[in-house]
Amino acid sequence: MHVDIGAALGEVAEPGVDEDELDALDERVATAHETIAAGRENGDFGYAALNLPEETDPSVIREAVEPVTDAEYVVTVGIGGSALGAKTVTAALADRPDRHVILDNVDPEHIERTLAALPLEDTAINVVSKSGTTAETLANFLVVRETYEDAGVDWTELTVVTTGESGPLAQLVEEHDLPRLPVPDGVPGRFAALSSVGLVPAAILDLDIEGLLSGAGAAADDLGPSLYDSPAYAYGAVCYALEERGAGVNAVMPYAERLELFAEWFAQLWAESLGKDGRGQTPARALGATDQHSQLQLYRAGPRDKMVTVVRPRERADVPVPETDHDSLSYLSGADLGQLLDAEYDATVASLAQAGRPAVEIELERLDAEGLGELLFAMEAATILVGELADIETFTQPAVEWGKRAARGLLSGEETEETKTVAERPSYRID
Ligand SMILES: O=P(O)(O)OC[C@H]1O[C@](O)(CO)[C@@H](O)[C@@H]1O
């Protein structure tokens, strides 16, 4: 994996990072790296996530899912970090990503329609919750369980659970003697893709989870005291510097359909880790080349409040564009779709630079298990670095708790501070 920051430098972009500022940043990266390395060494909360490539044992995951590896489909019941990593991995690596169905919302129509379309007897159930208490996950699991029971399908034979040792989900595991995989200690959900939290569906679909972990391990080896030698830190440091200079939005635009969900996974990682103390870049999800035809106008001619992160694999499938005798289409003849997509990528980066808008390029040799592992790990390390440079608490998400308490209170009918505030919330209806 390599990172190209050329289109984010000060002589090209506004906001931009001047080369002499990079040296000053690099000194701070060296200090931050020391903290990160010490945190990894001690297995400290959050930093421990960067030890997962070594500590995750794929054979343990394969053993736990062995009873369900002949399932045609797998349905994941989880939300946030307990779903995004898993769906990113199968979307990127599976030949048939449709075999992995995700229930990471509680929309009744969607749940009903999704379950109705699944051959339940041939669908494994992957339930994931670090806390074991998340309302959406537990509600969906109860609905899934009842749906299987109503269909006369023994869900206990098809279920694998990843959760902690306590909580209602752990109790269900005990009650029904379900196979349980642990959540890694000291790792926030959004940083847990490289563990059983993110790898169970990939193992059930027999994807290369070993390659994924070794790719992540290679990225871990790249971490060092200088941004000039570590693509992950270079990405993080430049994002931090651009945010400091007004780029409050980070539009993540992979040029590969198989990486569309990567942008969704990144959005949680970036927002929930760095959205603190009144700061934090807003991650915007886009897809190249599709969103050139929807968002690029804004990225190139809108407010100078954003940066664009483009991602591409260099190796692509070969789908030639058929010859045609239309002169106006002669420029397409002989090309293949991959060449067209890469031309679009290069043109978009150049068009942003030409308009003085900052962009950072992330390139993988190829989008295989190793490449994806490297990318996921590098983005986690970049996030942790930004947290160090911004001096914020990267690994918690206190701001999400109020809403959870309010929703729980509304459902239980309990009158709480939160439910009172909900009842009194501002309203100015226009019908
Ligand atoms: O894995 P759990 O505990 O069900 O939490 C799911 C998600 O909810 C959050 O806690 C936010 O509400 C995320 O940080 C987490 O990834």
UniProtKB/TrEMBL annotation:
Q: Kindly state which keywords UniProt assigns to this record, in alphabetical order.
A: Cytoplasm, Gluconeogenesis, Glycolysis, Isomerase
What Enzyme Commission number(s) appear in the record? 5.3.1.9
Q: Which Gene3D superfamilies match?
A: Glucose-6-phosphate isomerase like protein, domain 1
Reaction catalysis annotation? alpha-D-glucose 6-phosphate = beta-D-fructose 6-phosphate
Main subcellular localisation: cytoplasm
Q: In which pathway does it act?
A: Carbohydrate degradation; glycolysis; D-glyceraldehyde 3-phosphate and glycerone phosphate from D-glucose: step 2/4; Carbohydrate biosynthesis; gluconeogenesis
Task: Please name the HAMAP family in this protein's record.
Answer: G6P_isomerase
UniProt-recorded name of the protein: Probable glucose-6-phosphate isomerase
Q: Which organism is it from?
A: Haloarcula saliterrae
What's the encoding gene here?
A: pgi
